[in-house]
Amino acid sequence: MEAPWRSPHLLGLVLALLPSCCLLTRAAAQDDAWLLLEIKRAWGDPPVLAGWNASAAGAHCAWPYVACDTAGRVVNLTLASANVAGPFPDAVGGLTGLTYLDVSSNNITGVFPTTLYRCSALQYLDLSWNHLGGELPADTGSRLGTNLTTLVLSGNRFNGTIPASLSSLRNLQNLKLDDNKLIGTVPAELGKLTRLQTLWLAYNLFDAGELPASFKNLTNMTSLWATQCKLVGDFPRFVADMPELEVLDLSINTLTGSIPPWIWSLEKLQSFAVYRNNLTGDLVVNDFAAMGLTLIDVSENYKLTGVIPEVFGHLENLTTLSLFSNNFSGEIPASIGRLPSLSVLRLYSNRFTGILPPELGKHSTFTYMEVDDNELIGTIPEGLCARGQFTTLTAQGNHLNGSIPEALANCTSLRGLALNDNQLIGTIPEGICAGGQFRTLHAKGNHLNGSIPEALVKCTSLRGLVLDDNQLSGEVPWALLTTGIITLSLHNNRLTGRL
Ligand SMILES: *[C@@H]1O[C@H](CO)[C@@H](O)[C@H](O)[C@H]1NC(C)=O
Ligand SMILES: *[C@@H]1O[C@H](CO)[C@@H](O)[C@H](O)[C@H]1NC(C)=O
Ligand SMILES: *[C@@H]1O[C@H](CO)[C@@H](O)[C@H](O)[C@H]1NC(C)=O
Ligand SMILES: *[C@@H]1O[C@H](CO)[C@@H](O)[C@H](O)[C@H]1NC(C)=O
Ligand SMILES: *[C@@H]1O[C@H](CO)[C@@H](O)[C@H](O)[C@H]1NC(C)=O
Ligand SMILES: *[C@@H]1O[C@H](CO)[C@@H](O)[C@H](O)[C@H]1NC(C)=O
Ligand SMILES: *[C@@H]1O[C@H](CO)[C@@H](O)[C@H](O)[C@H]1NC(C)=O
Ligand SMILES: *[C@@H]1O[C@H](CO)[C@@H](O)[C@H](O)[C@H]1NC(C)=O
Ligand SMILES: *[C@@H]1O[C@H](CO)[C@@H](O)[C@H](O)[C@H]1NC(C)=O
Ligand SMILES: *[C@@H]1O[C@H](CO)[C@@H](O)[C@H](O)[C@H]1NC(C)=O
Ligand SMILES: *[C@@H]1O[C@H](CO)[C@@H](O)[C@H](O)[C@H]1NC(C)=O
Ligand SMILES: *[C@@H]1O[C@H](CO)[C@@H](O)[C@H](O)[C@H]1NC(C)=O
Predict the structure, then answer these.
(1) Nearest alpha carbon to residue 143 among 164, 116, 161
(2) What residue stretch is flagged as signal peptide (predicted)?
């Protein structure tokens, strides 16, 4: 016969009477059900956990967000974006079979939950995007289970330094500490985590310093993200020993020296961003192997020089090329206009000469182009919107001539044209504002003639029209004032009537 204390009817009573030390005798699975209810209570019975209610034994394995092993022990708890709030419940530490815990994007408060040291089987731990704070305990790395492969603490308010003890987590493959308030420098000990594939450190409050040279041993790294980490000194050399690297983002730091040519030999590199640093010198490309690049962003270094490497025009997956606010020169290779994936091209504030690649827009879903403040000549490519997705062209302060292409004006996705201070001629095409999304036309300081088209006057989406210093004629279109326009400037034309 079953022992009376196992009877379901008495279970609640027994639980209430026994101190927690004596519950060890109960089946571990039954324990887990009780712990889940304890977690639910600690979080104030949130609506999202309404489905966690006392019912037949083993039923907890069917509760939402819970998964068990065959013995009925809870192994997975996935409560991401579940809208739970309050301190991290100690009861979670009792779920000693847990291998996978994700409580990301909630309102969990307090300090790092050391109760998790009891969950020694944990492989995956994600506490990101909560309101946890305080220092990470110095022993965190030696107390968490060594089976841990993923530790995600992003988007909290952890302060203090990165504990060197994290290097004890020898199986760690993914470590994400970005978007916290961590200080100090990155400990050299992390170089012992040789299985590491993902290391995210961006947006912390570190002291000015370098990433440790011991990272030379992190040869399995695929994603290294250290935006705004107060990095100083030369471009880190250890990156050359990361042949698996797919994503490298060292933007918003004060790295100096040049971009090493070997960066382009990293065969698997897909995303390379070093914008807003103090890098100088030419973009030198010798042995180029990174044919899978989708994003190149070296903008806002102010002093990068040289030309756009011809090979960039042969990157079949390149969607974004961002080189603005530097000192690049030479012509834009025509091959850039034939890239099959290009969507965004940002080249403003450099010293580019020659013409815009005539085929731009014809071979890819092109959406956005900024080429202001260069020394470009020739005409605006007529196919920018050939694929029907183009939104914005800014090309102020060049020497562009010819007229505003009809096909561009007719583009239904078009939102803005900024063409001030060029040598454009002809009329403003009638088709402008065809898609009803058009917001701004800035084309002062050109040689535009003819009248302001009727289509523009009726364009209810229009917010800015700046056409000073042209040769526009006809009546001032009074009706413009009923479009919802905010900025309107038409000085120094041949318009008749008054505004
Ligand atoms: C228990 O949760 C289930 C859903 O999992 C729900 O259908 C049932 O009504 C709940 N029972 C109580 C007593 O809240
Ligand atoms: C636990 O979650 C992980 C990741 O979602 C999944 O791969 C695994 O199959 C889950 N285990 C169980 C028992 O549901
Ligand atoms: C979580 O915090 C956000 C903003 O701080 C708040 O809007 C939301 O209501 C909170 N949710 C809970 C469950 O407390
Ligand atoms: C760690 O993983 C190994 C291999 O899967 C397993 O045998 C061991 O029990 C795990 N350790 C813990 C504490 O769960
Ligand atoms: C860390 O955060 C805790 C809790 O918010 C605060 O009391 C402490 O002063 C902070 N420490 C530092 C060094 O900022
Ligand atoms: C690197 O990754 C591969 C494949 O995931 C794995 O076989 C190898 O053991 C890893 N190397 C180290 C040093 O962990
Ligand atoms: C890399 O690892 C080797 C062997 O584990 C070790 O001897 C060496 O000091 C490490 N290199 C760095 C730069 O930490
Ligand atoms: C980096 O450049 C910024 C602005 O261009 C400048 O203010 C700063 O002093 C430079 N820092 C270093 C370390 O060169
Ligand atoms: C471009 O992307 C596709 C799809 O992701 C991939 O199959 C192809 O290998 C990539 N090309 C290069 C050169 O890496
Ligand atoms: C850009 O390069 C030119 C030619 O090398 C040089 O004269 C000029 O000073 C540089 N401009 C800046 C802002 O570095
Ligand atoms: C535009 O400028 C180029 C070179 O500056 C010149 O060859 C061409 O004739 C000009 N075209 C027009 C339409 O003015
Ligand atoms: C632009 O649209 C107008 C009608 O609004 C049409 O007459 C003209 O042929 C179109 N031009 C091009 C190049 O698509």
Answers:
(1) 116
(2) 1-29
Look at residue 5 and tell me whether its pLDDT is greater than 70. Answer: no
In the reported structure, the alpha carbon of residue 132 is separated from the centroid of ligand 3 by a whole-number distance in angstroms of 14
Which ligand has the shortest distance to the CA of 243?
6
Q: What is the mean pLDDT of the chain?
A: 92
What whole-number distance in Å separates Cα of residue 290 and Cα of residue 288? 6
Q: Residues near 461 by Cβ (< 8 Å), separated by ≥ 6?
A: 433, 436, 437, 438, 439, 484
Q: Ligand 10: does its nearest atom lie under 6 Å from the Cβ of 329? A: no
Phi, psi of 418 (to 5 degrees): -120, 105
**All structural domains of the chain:** 401-499 (3.80.10.10)
| Confidence (pLDDT) at 55 | 66
Contacts of 24 (CB under 8 A, 6+ apart): none
Q: 25 falls in which pLDDT band (50, 70, 90)?
A: very low
Distance between CA atoms of residues 395 and 192, nearest Å = 49
Judged by its nearest atom, the ligand closest to the C-alpha of residue 74 is: 2
pLDDT band (50, 70, 90) for residue 479: confident
Rg (C-alpha) for the chain, rounded Å, is 30
Pairing state of beta strands 66-68 and 74-78? antiparallel
Mutate which of 353, 356, 401 for ligand 11 pocket (most atoms within 8 A of beta carbon): 401
What is the three-class DSSP state of 92? Answer: helix
Nearest bound ligand to the CA of residue 339: 9
Q: What are phi and psi of 342, to 5 degrees?
A: -65, 130
Q: Binning pLDDT at 50, 70 and 90, where does residue 405 land?
A: very high
pLDDT at 20 over 60: no
Could you tell me the distance, in angstroms and rounded to a whole number, from the CA of residue 45 to the centre of ligand 1? 13
On the question of pLDDT at 97 being above 50, the answer is yes
Ligand 5 atom 1: residue of nearest CA: 134
CA 469/CA 276 separation, integer angstroms: 35
Which amino acid residue places its CA nearest to atom 12 of ligand 1? 53
What is the rounded distance in angstroms from the CA atom of residue 197 to the CA atom of residue 176? 11
> For position 57, what pLDDT does the model report?
59
The number of the ligand nearest the C-alpha atom of 170 reads 6
Indicate which residue's Cα is closest to atom 8 of ligand 11: 378
For residues 111 and 97, give the distance between their C-alpha atoms in angstroms, rounded to a whole number.
23
- Site to probe by mutation for ligand 6, drawn from 193, 220, 223, 241 as the one with most ligand atoms within 8 Å of Cβ, is 220
